[in-house]
Design brief:
By secondary structure, this protein is an alpha/beta fold. 27% of the residues lie in helices and 22% in strands. Strand 4 and strand 5 form a beta hairpin.
C-alpha cells in the first residue's frame, strides 16, 4: 500500500462558490442545502479531513489528534451512500482498512515528515434515526461531527451532538483547534426543524448556526420563454408539465456526466423535481399516502366558523398529542377549522393548551370531544385514564366506537369522495399546515422492495411526525358522525344519489 500524503487529496472547491463559503466558515453548526449532484457530501468528507490537517499538534509527540462522528439515519443508508462517498475520497488501499463491524470506524494516520506533523484522525460512522438513539452518543468524546442528509434525522440527534463535540483531543494534546457540527441535506419542507434553523430562527452568538443554500441544478422556464422550434434540441427539458433547463449557476456540473439532469428529470413528480433538482424547500411525498383521495388544491379553502354548529374535536393521545377542530355542517360537509400539534408534551400541559385554544378560538360554543379508545386505559402511575384527566379540567371527552385503523381511514376518506352542492364533502382551512401535509402523503405506507415491475407497501402506515395529527382527524370524523353513517348508511332519501345536495343532520 502506498502511503498517502495530505497533498494527494484534490480539495479545490473554488469553482463552487457556495461550497467554498461553507468550507471557509467557522460557525459552530454549519449546514449546506442543495440539489442532488451538487457535491455536498464530497465537500463534507473533505471538510472533515481539512479540520484534521488544521488541528494543532500535540506537545507530547507532535501528532495532530482528532475524532469525528459521521451520522446517517440508518445503517443501510450509511453503508450504501455515506460510506461509499467517503471511500471514494479515502480508499482503503491507500488509507488503510475500514472496520466494518458496528461502530464502523476508519482510522486515518499519516506519519510526521520533516516539518509536517503527523495526523491521527479517527472517524466513527453511526446510524441515529430516533431521538432515543441519542444515548449512543453519551460516551463519545469528539472533535466534530458530520450529519449526512440531516433532514432525515430528528433535531434531538443534532442537539445531542452539540455537547459531545469539542471534547477531543484533551488539553494534554493541545485541545481541539476547531469544534463543531457540519450538516448537508437536500431541501426539506418549510415546517421542518432544519428550515426553521436555517431560514426563520437561526441560533446566534458565539456558537451560531449558519446555513448555505446552493443554486438549483435546473431552473423552471416560463412557457413564453421556451423556443417554439425543437426546444429539446436546445437543452430544454419537459417534465411534470413544466419546462426546465440546467441552471447556469449549478455547482459541481463539471463532475457530472453529460445529460445528468435531463435523465434525472424524466418521469418525476413536480414536487420531486423542485426538491431534488431545483433545490427548493418543499414537501416530497414518500410511499403510498394513507388518504390518496385527498386533493390539497380542491379541498383547501379559507373557512369561517358556523356559530350554530357544534365544534367536533378529535384527540390522539401519547407523548405527541394532537387535536383537530372541525364542524359537520347541516348539509353534511365537513369543515376542518383548526389544528393543535405538540411534541414531547404530557397530558397535563396538553389539556391546559387545549382549553386555551378552545377559549380563544371557539368561545361559548358547544363542543364534542372524541378520542382514541386506548385513552380509557388507566395509567399505571397516576391510576387514571386520559378521559378522566380531561374531565377533571371540565372537558367531557368520549372514546370513539373503535380505533381500528381501516375504519378511521374510511371515516376521513368517505366525505372526500362526496360532492355536496358542487363542492367536496371535506374541506380544510389553509392554516392547517400540518394536517394538510399529513393528508398529502406525510402519513403513508412505506414501500416494500419487491420484484421488478410492481410495488408493494406495508400493511400498517408509518408512524412519524405526520401520523398523530392524521389519527386525530380520523377520530374527529369517526366520532362526529361518519361511523354512524358507515354502519347505518345515509338517510333513505339520499341512498339513490351519488351526488347529494344535502345530507342528514347528524346532530338532529
Amino acid at each position: 500500500m502506498n502511503k498517502p500524503a495530505a497533498e494527494d487529496l484534490k480539495l479545490d472547491f473554488s469553482t463552487s462558490k457556495t461550497v467554498w463559503k461553507f468550507l471557509n466558515d467557522n460557525s459552530f453548526v454549519r449546514g449546506i442545502v442543495g440539489p442532488v449532484g451538487s457535491g455536498k457530501s464530497y465537500a463534507c468528507c473533505a471538510e472533515v479531513f481539512k479540520r484534521a490537517v488544521a488541528q494543532k499538534p500535540s506537545p507530547r509527540d507532535g501528532i495532530k489528534y482528532t475524532r469525528f462522528a459521521i451520522v446517517r439515519n440508518s445503517y443501510p443508508m450509511l453503508r450504501t451512500t455515506t460510506l461509499k462517498t467517503w471511500q471514494e475520497l479515502f480508499p482503503e488501499d491507500r488509507w488503510g482498512p475500514i472496520r466494518h463491524s458496528p461502530p464502523i470506524t476508519h482510522h486515518l494516520k499519516l506519519p510526521s515528515r520533516g516539518n509536517a506533523a503527523g495526523i491521527d484522525c479517527e472517524v466513527i460512522f453511526l446510524a441515529l434515526d430516533q431521538p432515543k438513539d441519542v444515548r449512543k452518543l453519551l460516551s463519545l468524546e469528539l472533535t466534530g461531527a458530520w450529519v449526512n442528509e440531516a433532514r432525515e434525522l430528528p433535531k434531538a440527534v443534532i442537539d445531542g451532538l452539540t455537547h459531545r463535540v469539542g471534547r477531543y483531543p484533551t488539553k494534554a494534546d493541545s485541545g481541539p483547534t476547531w469544534r463543531g457540527i457540519i450538516l448537508d441535506s437536500n431541501p426539506c419542507p418549510d415546517d421542518h426543524w432544519m428550515y426553521i434553523a436555517a431560514e426563520k430562527n437561526p441560533p446566534k452568538g458565539q456558537f451560531k448556526w449558519k446555513f448555505y443554500q446552493q443554486p438549483g441544478g435546473v431552473d423552471e422556464i416560463p412557457l413564453d420563454q421556451v423556443p417554439g422550434d425543437m426546444p429539446e434540441a436546445q437543452g430544454y427539458i419537459f417534465s411534470a408539465g413544466k419546462w426546465w433547463r440546467q441552471s447556469p449557476k449549478a455547482e459541481n456540473v463539471s463532475n457530472l456526466p453529460d445529460g445528468y439532469y435531463e435523465q434525472l428529470l424524466g418521469g418525476k413528480s413536480l414536487d420531486w423535481i423542485r426538491c431534488y433538482a431545483e433545490g427548493k424547500y418543499t414537501y416530497v411525498q414518500e410511499g403510498l399516502p394513507v388518504w390518496p383521495e385527498y386533493d390539497d388544491v380542491s379541498m383547501t379553502s379559507d373557512l369561517e366558523v358556523d356559530k350554530e354548529v357544534p365544534i367536533q374535536i378529535g384527540l390522539d393521545f401519547g407523548l405527541t398529542p394532537a387535536a383537530v377542530f372541525a364542524q359537520r355542517l347541516k348539509n353534511g360537509r365537513w369543515h376542518v377549522l383548526h389544528e393543535l400539534v405538540t411534541f414531547s408534551m404530557g397530558l397535563e400541559r396538553f389539556t391546559h393548551l387545549l382549553k386555551t385554544e378552545l377559549e380563544s378560538k371557539f368561545p361559548k360554543m358547544d363542543v364534542m370531544i372524541w378520542g382514541d379508545p386506548a385513552g380509557s386505559q388507566r395509567d399505571a402511575i397516576y391510576e387514571t385514564t386520559a378521559f378522566d384527566h380531561l374531565k377533571t379540567h371540565g372537558l367531557l371527552a368520549r372514546p370513539t366506537a373503535t380505533n381500528e385503523f381501516k375504519t378511521r381511514r374510511e371515516a376521513l376518506a368517505s366525505p372526500m369522495g362526496r360532492l355536496i352542492e358542487g363542492k367536496p364533502g371535506f374541506l380544510i382551512n389553509r392554516s392547517c399546515i400540518r394536517l394538510r401535509k399529513s393528508l398529502s402523503g406525510g402519513y403513508h405506507f412505506k414501500r416494500v422492495a419487491v420484484g421488478a415491475g410492481y410495488e408493494r407497501f406495508k400493511d400498517q402506515p408509518n408512524k412519524n411526525e405526520h401520523s398523530h395529527i392524521g389519527d386525530a382527524a380520523g377520530y374527529c370524523l369517526l366520532g362526529g358522525g361518519e361511523h354512524r353513517r358507515m354502519t347505518r348508511g345515509a338517510s333513505p332519501q339520499f341512498r339513490q344519489q351519488s351526488v347529494a345536495r344535502t345530507e342528514f343532520d347528524v346532530f338532529g
